[in-house]
Specification:
- With 71 residues, the protein is an all-alpha fold.
- Helix 2 packs antiparallel against helix 3 and helix 3 packs antiparallel against helix 4.
- The longest helix is centred in the first third of the chain and has 14 residues.
- It is globular and about 30 Å long.
């Protein structure tokens, strides 16, 4: 996860996407990781792929986060 974030920091979008994809295999419902994969797809100019993954992230966000109940 942190290596993927480092790749984003240096704008290595495809490397970050691959690293986040590895994390997603271990945590398939992790909305945070799905968001970052979608973000990478956008940076790689692949909006259709981004939308698919970002929709999964939206679906996996908990109700408390949506309702802004986290403190």
């Amino acid at each position: 996860y942190y290596n993927a974030l480092d790749s984003i920091d240096i704008r290595h979008w495809d490397a970050a996407r691959l690293l986040f994809s590895n994390v997603l295999r271990e945590e398939p419902d992790n909305a945070n990781v799905q968001y970052f994969i979608g973000y990478c797809w956008l940076k790689l100019n692949k909006p259709t792929k981004a939308i698919s993954v970002l929709q999964q992230a939206i679906n996996n966000v908990g109700d408390k986060l949506i309702m802004n109940e986290y403190e």
